[in-house]
Structure formats: structure tokens, C-alpha cells
Amino acid sequence: MSVLDLARPEIRAMQPYSSARMEASGGEVFLNANESAWAPVGDDGLGCNRYPEPQPAALVDALAALYGVRREQLLVGRGSDEAIDLLVRAFCRAGRDAILIQPPTFGMYAVSARVQDAGIVEVPLAADFTLDVDAVLAALTPAVKLVFICTPNNPTGQPVPRAAVERLAQALSGRALLVVDEAYVEFSDAGSVAALIDRYDNLAVLRTLSKAWALAGARIGSLLANAEVIALLRRIMAPYPLPLPCVEAALMALSGWGQANARERIGIVCEQRARMQTALRRLPGVREVLPSQANFLAVRFDEATVVYQGLLAAGIVVRDVRRYPNLGDALRITIGTPAENDRVLAVLKSPAMDGQGVAEGAA
Prior knowledge:
Blueprint: H1 9-13, H2 20-23, H3 57-67, E1 74-77, H4 79-91, E2 98-101, H5 108-115, E3 119-122, H6 133-139, E4 144-150, H7 162-172, E5 177-181, E6 203-208, E7 221-224, H8 227-236, H9 244-253, H10 256-281, E8 286-289, E9 296-301, H11 304-313, E10 319-320, E11 330-334, H12 338-348
Parallel strand pairs: 2-3, 2-4, 4-5, 5-6
Antiparallel strand pairs: 1-7, 6-7, 8-9, 9-11, 10-11
Helix pairs in contact: 4-5
């Protein structure tokens, strides 16, 4: 059985749009795409008057090398969100098929499913926010075509063990595509499962340059998967998804100097994460700091509303995650610079917080 047998038959059969850039081969004078012949003011040789490559070769090669896959196993697009949307549209028939998720988790899986009118099967994480493989398999129905796993999970921060991912990939073979979201994997000790793609054709991995690579504003995300899955998604992808300035920013970040800089910053984040875990756990009014392998901490407070408002009044914005299942008392705090982290701790220890769930005098 081919993994494409899980996809929508009408997507497999459709004639994809063929863009002018895809059809062009060679040439010096380009009069095939109805572009302007003149570059815009301030272009500085970038060539923004021309449509970009649908899958820029230099960027695809750089990302494939970074992630340890072959270029035909990689699709690059507008953040992981685009890849999630493409997967749902390609594999889920409206009103008939479904995805499976484990809340609390990243909200875009469910949003993309609802836009497609696909069903959503929820298998909550265990009380300690770990993944229950047996529960996932027990909840699987023939309608489920995509199983999403976020590791490290957002908003809780725990990774999913590699053995659990592999067990799911094996069990889902011929039944569903397993999509492993590794947006925060650079901050984790667990490492990527991308090497398993050659072993399991029903395994896909989401990666992004938004977090560890400091390019949230450029919107560069990748899907790593079986070459047939990548080719299928290219059929329904927008013809020119990547703006030239974003491609240039990504190539700079992935240069030798850019990679060294990113790895240095990742090290700082991991050090600061450990420091913040220790400091926050000592504060009165903090019920729990969840263990995290991401670039954030989910923190339970006696008075989460008071803490949120107190930080906001001091100019510090954190994420209120109390709407998520089993996180009704929690805030998510991203690890910032050492100075920003000091400022968070100073506010939480300030007299303004005394008697409102967090008190001054904690170490």
C-alpha cells in the first residue's frame, strides 16, 4: 500500500496549476509572466519585480542539509502553519475524514481541520502531560487520516520519546499519516525523528526557522516527508509561496556564521530556562513549573489572573493559556534575554504582588 492511498483521490487525480516560473527554462529576456521589466525602488539587485522560484533551490538544499533529508523529501513554505493546512486539505475529505490530536496542544491543527470541515478526535494527554500511545491507538477510527504530535509540546514543553513516535508510526502504517511537529526541537535533548522518514513512509515532520533561528517574521517552515507526499502537496500549494526577501534572510541565517550564532543563542536559552525554572519554583504563589524542553515554561499560579495583569502593568506580556485543558491556572512564559528574565523575576517579587499570590522576598 502506498501512503498516497490515504490521500483524497480527487487531489491525486487533479491537474495542478502550472506557473510561468515552473514552465520557464533558460532564457535571458523574460516576457512570459506579465511581470514588470523594472525593479522597484530600493531593490538593491534582489529582483523583486520577478516572481520567486516556487521552491528556491539554494534554500531547499540548505534546509535539507540542516535537517538530514534528501531535497525531494522537503517542502518549504510559509511557516509550519501552511504545511499543516496543506496536509489537512490533501488527506481529509470535508465532512468525512478526521484528524487526531492530544490536547492541550498547538491550536492550528484543530483550526485547519475546522476550515476543511474535517472531524477532530481528541485524546487528552495524561495528567502529567505525557502522551499515552495506547489511548491514541484505541481512539483511532477509519476516518482518522492524520495524527498530530507536538514534541516538545506547546504549551506544556514536554518531549515525546522517540520510542513512542516509532511505535505510533509502525501501528499507523496503512491507516494514517503521523505528523510530528518539531517546532521546538532545537531546544530539546531528545533530537529529531527525521531519520525515521526513510523507514516509515507514513511519517512526516514539521520544522520551522521561527523559533531557534530567530526568523518568526520571515515565515519559513518545512515539511519533511516521503517524496510522494511532498510531490502531492506541491500540487495544491500556492505557486509562489516564498517572498524573495524572506528567502534571503533564511539563507543568511543558515550560513556558517548564521548557524554558529543560532547555536550560541540556543545555548543561552537552555541555560536561562534552567535558571528560570529554579527561580520560579522558589516563589510563593507558584504551584508548579512544568518541566520543559522548549524555549518557554508553563507555570501554574495560585492567582494567575493577578500575575498576568501585574506583569502586563509592568510592560511584560506573557501568554495566558488557561483556556487549555488542565491548564486553568497557568501562564506560558517565553525565555527571553537574561535582562528580560531578570525583569520578570523582579516584578514577581515586587511589593505590588505581595499578598496577591506572589510575594516579595523569594529567592
